[in-house]
Structure formats: structure tokens, C-alpha cells
Amino acid sequence: xxxxxxxxxxxxxxxxxxxxALNYCMLLPGPEAPQLATYLGWLMHGVPGGLIAxxxxxxxSVLVLLALSSVYAIWGQLPLLAAVxxxxxPAVLSIVLVAAWRLGKRTLxxxxxxxxxxxxxxxxxxLRLPYPLVVIGAALVGEGAQPGAxxxxxxxxxxxxGGGAVDACLRRGSGRLSAGH
Length: 181
Hints:
Elements: H1 2-9, H2 15-27, H3 32-75, H4 79-107, H5 111-125, H6 131-144, H7 151-160, H8 165-172
Helix pairs in contact: 2-3, 5-6
């Protein structure tokens, strides 16, 4: 939903900048969606924007989880409610799988990237390698795959500058959006 609203509908960010921010948020511990919302709020309106965006992003889910946990604690042993919660598990799984599929379609454009994604999945799920080790290994493979071009990381600066209001502000050096955007 963040992607659709910020990149496609409002065009506040380019696809490249959004994926760049998402990649950084995925490296941090914890859920990346609130981190991404907080980062984008900070990027557009400084510290107050980050605090407000992060707080308002989390508020609905906190309220829903509080309500569901209260209902479960009070009436969780009832067969009807147990069945409802059992049905929610595959629904949540399907939401996660659809999100992963959409992200994969936007980011895995070459056999190397698909191979890295599969290798990372196998390393994490089957070999139980530590996440930082998998990330470092993927970064090294990505850097090594660009001989003579200075590697992927050396090209990021130019590739991240794209269309969008946030990108225009960053090129100007303001770090904030004006009212016209």
C-alpha cells in the first residue's frame, strides 16, 4: 500500500528511491513497513514528520491487536472464536505471499538476482545461517558481478536520483517538501 500511494499515485518518490529505502529498512531489525513510513516522514518533514508518520502508521495496528488479544483472552476457548482465529492464519499468510510476489516482480529482473534470492532463502531456511552473513554474502556477490563498472554500490548515487517530489527536494538539498508538492 505504501508503494502504491507514494510511488504510483502521489509520485512523491521514484521507484528506485522507494526500493532503496525499503532495502535499508529490511536490513534493520524489526518490521520494515513502520520503519519505512517513519523514514519517509522524516525525509519529507524532518523529525516531527518522522514521529508523526511512525506513530500514525502504528496506531491502527496496535488498536486492532489490542482488541483481538482482549477478545481472545476473554472468549478464546469458545469453539466458534477458535475457528475464526484458525481461519485468520492462512489469510495472513496469503497477504504476506502476495506482498513478496509483488516485491519480487519489481526487483528480481535478472537471473543473478533470482539466484541470489533463492540462495538467500536456502541459506536462511535450510542452513540456518545468520541473517547478517547472508546479507554480506549477497552484497559481495552483487559487487563482484559488475567487473569494470565499479560495482553496484558505486553506481547507486546516480541511479537513485529519479522523478518525484522527494527526489527533487533532495537534489536541491532542502530535504523537505514545499507546500506545492
